[in-house]
Design brief:
Number of domains: 2
Bound molecules: uridine-diphosphate-N-acetylglucosamine
Number of helices: 14
Strand content: 25-35%
């Protein structure tokens, strides 16, 4: 168990370069299984989920060569359609391999992915979509076996715009030659557009990504490609929120400002000055933020992102005014609230609604625990503006989604020590 020991009250100044998106890279790695050529994915981020996904690919027969942050994949040999039990239990995103394996081999089987510490996370939308398209799904208590030998294509309408289900359904339809599949109420996240751009760069025919209706026309085969996934909009958003809270002048580099449009608008309304060009965001903040009566309600993209909810709660704790957050996507995603209260924040939660009575300078040092990735990041942001020295424990959760978080924040002027 490692910790960050953070001495607060430093302003943040300088430049930080954002890593490639984990949530874009995971399905892209899975989709590379469908190719008959050599696929190179450039600039992949250094996270354990990515390493585990690569290990699963190797175990099912993909030849992988990683040089620095570029990975080359060759899935043209014999592949196994059963995903390995131990690794799939470690990484929920292994579920993304069902679609590509169904497309390429006509069969896929996996152990049930568990829930996780932000909620139950079922996969019923993935499976009912598969069934709509003619795939037979057999579920036992611990395994799912899917058979696409009678794949029909046609139309499926998601009961909720799930990111993962949209990605799986797109992928399962890519190689059904001349059959057309339509996904209605599809998720519109930038990571979905990126996945479709990647598949289309291999010769796929996917139309409408980024809208709620995606059309896939099956092709005979997919070829090799060289591709760089998009920058991580959640990491970019976390640094923007941190700099707004601490005060200072930062440049967030390697970012698509359009992916953080609503956050940028909010930060401006809180009192920050923000400018941007095609791949940089420039933020200047006095560290004194004000907002009142705002309601942040998590929703699928382009709504307020659940992955920025916890960091926003930390910011609202030190923003003068009373505001609410409603968490609509995950059941247990307010775990950071109690820890922020320990630090002096005034937050009342009632089911999935949190009311934050914010006050500039209210946070004091404490010993706090990260219990999930984004909640953990919010505690780091809180510690950056707290009086005194705060210890954030269980930072392994945070490091699953932020590469060199301590070093990058220190390069901006923060005071963070990482201890074992
Ligand atoms: C992805 C992101 C995650 C983000 C989430 C919502 C990746 C690797 N992860 O997760 O960071 O927080 O989108 O933006 O891209 N649901 C069902 N049945 C299903 C599928 C989902 O009930 O079959 C529910 C989930 O429990 C959750 C909601 O739908 O309440 C949204 O889930 P979904 O969009 O699928 O999220 P993920 O793809 O798992």
């Amino acid at each position: 168990m490692s910790s960050y020991v953070i001495t607060g009250k430093n302003k943040l100044n300088g430049e930080v370069t954002i890593e490639t998106s984990k949530n874009a890279t995971l399905p892209i790695l899975a989709a590379s299984v469908m190719s008959n050529g050599i696929v190179t994915i450039k600039n992949i981020p250094n996270f354990s989920d990515i390493d585990n996904m690569i290990k699963i690919l190797q175990e099912i027969g993909v030849k992988v060569n990683k040089i620095n942050n570029d990975v080359t994949l060759d899935a043209s040999g014999k592949l196994n359609y059963t995903l390995p039990k131990e690794l799939t239990s470690k990484i929920r995103a292994s579920i993304f391999l069902l679609g590509p394996l169904l497309a390429k081999l006509g069969k896929a089987s996996s152990y049930m992915p568990g829930g996780c510490n932000i909620g139950k996370r079922p996969i019923d939308i993935h499976l009912s979509g598969f069934k709509d398209l003619g795939i037979t799904v057999t579920e036992t208590s611990e395994k799912i076996i899917c058979d696409a030998s009678e794949f029909t294509g046609g139309k499926t309408k998601l009961r909720f715009a799930s990111v993962g289900a949209t990605e799986n359904l797109i992928m399962c339809a890519c190689l059904s030659y001349l059959k057309t599949t339509i996904i209605e109420n599809a998720a519109k996240e930038p990571e979905i557009i990126d996945l479709c751009d990647f598949i289309n760069s291999m010769g796929g025919k996917i139309y409408g990504a980024g809208t709620d209706k995606i059309v896939i026309v099956g092709v005979k085969q997919l070829n090799g490609t060289v591709y760089t996934p998009i920058p991580d909009r959640i990491i970019a958003g976390t640094y923007l929120i941190g700099a707004a809270m601490c005060g200072g002048k930062v440049v967030i580099k390697n970012v698509n400002p359009m992916h953080n449009e609503s956050l940028i608008a909010n930060l401006i309304s809180f009192g920050c000055k923000i400018d941007y060009d095609s791949d940089n965001i420039y933020l200047e903040s006095s560290g004194f933020l004000k907002a009142n009566g705002k309601q942040f309600i998590t929703n699928p993209y382009p709504g307020f992102s659940t992955d920025l909810q916890a960091q926003t709660m930390a910011m609202l704790s030190v923003t003068d005014g009373n505001n609410t957050i409603t968490e609509n996507l995950f059941e247990t995603r307010f775990k950071q609230a109690d820890e922020l209260v320990k630090m002096g924040a005034c937050i009342k939660t009632d089911g999935n609604v949190a009311t934050i009575y914010g006050k500039h300078g209210c946070l004091k040092s404490s010993l706090v625990n990260a219990s999930d990735l984004r909640g953990g990041a919010s505690l780091v942001l809180a510690a950056l503006v707290a009086e005194g020295t705060t210890t954030v424990q269980n930072i392994e959760y945070i490091e699953r989604g932020y590469d060199n978080f301590d070093k990058k924040l220190n390069s901006l002027g923060a005071d963070i020590k990482r201890i074992q």
